[in-house]
Amino acid sequence: MSNYQTKKEQTTVLNKAIVDHKTDFANVYSLIAEAQSRAWQQVNKILIELYWKIGQYVSKKVENSGWGKSVVEQLSHYITTENPSISGFSARNIWRMKQFFETYPDQEKLSALLTEISWTNHLHILSKTKSVDEKQYYLELAAKHRYSERDFARVIDSCTYERTKLADLNLSAVLTEFPKALTGTFKDSYVFEFLGISDNHKESDLRRALVKHLKQFLRELGPDFSLMAEEYPLQVGMKDFRIDLLMFHRGLNCMVAIELKTTEFQPAHLGQLQFYLEVLDQEVKKPHENPSIGILICKTKDEDVVKYAMNRNMSPTMIAEYEIKLLNKSLLQKRLHEVCLVAEEESMSD
After folding, report:
1. Residue 189 contacts by C-beta under 8 Å, 6 or more apart in sequence?
2. Distance CA 214, CA 83 (A)
């Protein structure tokens, strides 16, 4: 019998081996992936520390020795002349290193965070954020979730900081007493620019589009969300009802019912959602789970109407808006500033 095997036969043998030894092969591959991850982290740590030290050196030279544009350009040329294979030391990037050091001069305080984030994601933070609190927020977010460059750019461009802070400030009394801390979990508004739907869409169009783009939708909702069902059926007496989207949040250990409205918020919407939550808790919730939470996502909302509607609301619910285009950052910043001022005044009067 010939030892020669056709390519098809070799593929068949390989596929059989994978089936027979799937667990063993997966274990070996996980060792490789883990080692690669540790290697990247170590290389990134060394690189970020190097950039910080170069930024420190250049910053002091600019301050004490009058270094300017021409000297930094000469420095960049010298580095590439000494080692033509080296990259990342253009004059522009050296100036960024200086900015990096001046933004985080206390390396000891932030070293763990700084070295866990790629240089590209650091550049997004440096160029797109202003306040110390905003920078700290995105540093912690990037370190925790290991975003790719593209995903992290979207996180900042969609004003995640402002939207999350607004939601935290507007948590109802019921939500603030939830068994698990909800700070940083929800957003005051959700951005669905990835759907590609027209302005004149129906609720069914919005729901189907969100499920179709589930990966982006879950990323926008935030970590720990998973989809349990679309149009989840509830039966009460002889009546049938359907929840638009039923989610589960691992961190909060609870179901999250999402109702979609392509119109302005109306107080009657809240009663419908409260009814769904009561049925979920009575008929669906498991004993070890926390009470269900409801999110009503509307096209628009009048803050005064929302305030009165929520005043005597005894269910863990929140009301958010949605947009199918990226938001105006300056308008959100202004709104956040105004809400913070009101919160400060209310706390001082208590």
Report:
1. 163, 166, 320, 321, 322, 323, 327
2. 47
Residue 25 lies in a domain: yes
**Rounded Cα gap, residues 48 and 121, in angstroms:** 11
- Does residue 264 share a domain with residue 153? no
The total number of structural domains that make up the chain = 3
Over residues 150-204, the pLDDT tens digits come to: 999 999 999 999 999 999 998 888 998 998 889 999 999 999 999 999 999 999 9
In terms of residue numbers, what domain contains 324?
A: 160-349
> φ and ψ at 273, to 5 degrees?
-65, -40
Q: Which helix (H) or strand (E) holds 113?
A: helix 107-114
Cβ atoms 221, 262 nearer than 8 A: no
C-beta atoms surrounding 333 within 10 Å = 16
Examine the domain organization and report whether 28 and 151 are in the same domain: no
Looking at the DSSP assignment, which residues form a beta bridge with residue 241? 234
Classify the C-alpha dihedral 148-153-155-161 as positive or negative. Answer: positive
What's the pTM? Answer: 0.84
